[in-house]
Amino acid sequence: MADKVFIFDTTLRDGEQVPGAKLAKEQKVEIARQLATLKVDIIEAGFPASSPGDFEAVREVARVVRGPVITGLARAVRKDIDTLWEAVKGAKRPRIHTFLGTSDIHIQKKFRSDREKILQWCVDTVKYARSLCPDVEFSTEDAARTEFEFLCRSVEAIVKAGATTINVPDTVGYATPMEMADRIRRLKEKVPALDKAVISMHCHNDLGMATANTLAGILAGARQAEVTVNGIGERAGNAALEEVVMAIRTRKEIFGNLYTDVNTKEIAKTSKMVSALMGLPVQRNKAIVGTNAFAHSSGIHQDGILKDRSTYEII
Question: pTM of this prediction?
Answer without folding.
Answer: 0.95
